[in-house]
Amino acid sequence: MNLTIDLSDRNAAELEAAAREARMPPDRYLAKIVAHALETRHRNKVQKLEEHLDYMESQVVPGATADEMESALQEALAYVRQHRAWQSS
Would the pLDDT of 87 be above 70? Predict the structure, then answer.
């Protein structure tokens, strides 16, 4: 992917200095920063999902059948979907 990023003179100078310190071209250095940020974001989303699933599991009524849990999940999804504000690009 190629893109152009408009940075302030101060930020551009900071990026160039950091890239020099890392002994990398500025574009490669910036690509590593972006990749790291995206990986961190993905890990955070996975962690939040795991925490949510653990919470959901803790809320299951003892003795509930798989069909009852599936029905409750479908009801919850139906409720959330009608309150969700979808945005199209």
Answer: no
